[in-house]
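dumping this here before i forget
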Amino acid sequence: MTHISSFVSEALASAGRWTDCSPEQALVYACEDIAVRECPLPSLSHGETAQLVGRICLHEDTDVPHVHFHRRAGRCIGWAHGESHTIGFSGAGVTAHTVVHEIAHLTPGSSGHDGVFRAQLVGLARRHIGIEYAALLHSLFRGVGLDVPQWQA
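structure:
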């Protein structure tokens, strides 16, 4: 088993790959990449993705966003737009990791990849992916210096 400090070092070193992002956003992506690699999930079809969005929102007692699917353009596989309450997915390879990430962006008070977003992401991951993934993600965020305000398990 790899010690968390090795993963934290890896995340800090790999964050520079996202040159078009803020340092905070790049660290979030680097941490997520490691957590996704260490806790892999199967890819979802468009129908499975839409169903998962609906199930999560029903469980969370929140409005289901409009869900769009597009051809992949660049490396972005998901996006969220709060004003229109819309999330979108591009190309193949969408997993529950991507779904909870995009739903977390619709959290009121969240701005980009800030602490509110991270707390929501960890909470959603805990409830809809599993404790192993959520705990690893939380530990990585804390390890690279990103705060995760009080989150609900």
